[in-house]
């Protein structure tokens, strides 16, 4: 600035370094203070969100209660352990039995299997030999259980799994012929103390009737229900169901845990091969109900040193399937 005498006065302001340092330190403390309370706020929010049940959780509990017949407040089991309502089961059986497919099962046959699945403690393990008209029905009836299908035709198995990815299907190559049934059954009975013993891990079996090329985990599962509806058994040169019935008998008697009893159903029981193998490996003393088309056996697991499939006890009272 210029004064009246023409001199210019210059004002110089000097900032001491201590003042700058004090200002920076104050800002750092302020930033730390704000950050601390921000973190505390976020943690409080997350904790509160986890401890307050959500609307979806309440709805899921209510649905589980309706399905299981309890109340929403008393339902502690997850919905995944629930069974299908009786009305849904009856509807499935009704429409499946009214199919135009000439090879479908009757209402009485399907209901017999359905009743066992309904009583099975969840999660129920169901093994089915054969892909049939009722495949989707068995998967649905064993709601939230484990259902595995064994199919002889690898191309059909791949096709079926492609259009129904929720279905677990494994293909197997049968080496038997239906017309060899008598010879194969006799040989298996003679080797019941060795390679065809009733209690064994079939993965390592040399018995000709034993299926040893299934996925490893199939042999480790304690199956609650086994349904034999395959492979083809209506042709002289077809594989017949000797191997599937024998394998079902061994799996049922070799259980390591779970329910010691296994329900085994054999379809097309009127045929010679099915009836022969049922008598020899599932045993008539274990037959609880039957008609010309379906036989229902209940097998107990056996001691690992057992050498006989049947003990020759008096045949139990057998009811007729309606």
TrEMBL record:
<dbReference type="GO" id="GO:0045492">
    <property type="term" value="P:xylan biosynthetic process"/>
</dbReference>
<keyword id="KW-0333">Golgi apparatus</keyword>
<dbReference type="GO" id="GO:0000139">
    <property type="term" value="C:Golgi membrane"/>
</dbReference>
<feature type="transmembrane region" description="Helical">
    <location>
        <begin position="28"/>
        <end position="47"/>
    </location>
</feature>
<keyword id="KW-0812">Transmembrane</keyword>
<keyword id="KW-1133">Transmembrane helix</keyword>
<dbReference type="InterPro" id="IPR006514">
    <property type="entry name" value="IRX15/GXM/AGM"/>
</dbReference>
<keyword id="KW-0472">Membrane</keyword>
<protein>
    <submittedName>
        <fullName>IRX15/IRX15L/IGXM</fullName>
    </submittedName>
</protein>
<dbReference type="Pfam" id="PF21729">
    <property type="entry name" value="IRX15_IRX15L_GXM"/>
</dbReference>
């Amino acid at each position: 600035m210029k004064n009246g005498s023409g001199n210019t006065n210059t004002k110089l302001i000097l900032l001491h370094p201590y003042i700058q340092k004090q200002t920076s330190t104050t800002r750092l403390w302020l930033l730390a203070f704000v950050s601390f309370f921000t973190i505390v706020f976020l943690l409080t929010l997350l904790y509160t969100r986890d401890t307050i049940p959500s609307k979806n959780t309440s709805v899921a509990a209510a649905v589980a209660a309706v399905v299981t017949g309890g109340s929403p407040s008393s339902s502690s089991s997850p919905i995944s352990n629930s069974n299908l309502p009786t009305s849904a089961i009856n509807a499935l059986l009704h429409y499946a039995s009214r199919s135009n497919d000439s090879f479908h099962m009757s209402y009485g046959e399907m209901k017999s299997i359905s009743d066992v699945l309904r009583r099975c403690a969840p999660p129920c393990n169901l093994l089915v030999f054969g892909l049939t008209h009722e495949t989707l029905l068995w998967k649905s009836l064993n709601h939230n259980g484990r259902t595995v299908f064994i199919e002889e035709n690898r191309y059909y198995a791949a096709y079926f799994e492609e259009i129904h990815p929720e279905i677990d299907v494994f293909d197997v190559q049968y080496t038997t012929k239906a017309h060899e049934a008598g010879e194969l059954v006799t040989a298996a009975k003679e080797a019941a103390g060795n390679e065809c013993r009733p209690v064994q891990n079939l993965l390592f079996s040399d018995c000709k009737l034993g299926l040893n090329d299934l996925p490893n985990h199939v042999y480790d599962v304690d199956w609650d229900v086994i349904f034999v509806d395959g492979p083809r058994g209506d042709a002289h040169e077809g594989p017949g169901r000797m191997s599937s019935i024998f394998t079902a008998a061994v799996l049922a008697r070799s259980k390591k845990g779970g329910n010691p009893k296994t329900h085994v159903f054999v379809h097309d029981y009127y045929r010679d091969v099915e009836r022969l193998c049922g008598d020899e490996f599932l045993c008539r003393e274990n037959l609880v109900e039957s008609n010309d088309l379906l036989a229902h056996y209940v097998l107990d697991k056996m001691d690992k040193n057992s050498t006989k499939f049947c003990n020759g006890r008096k045949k139990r009272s057998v009811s007729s399937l309606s």
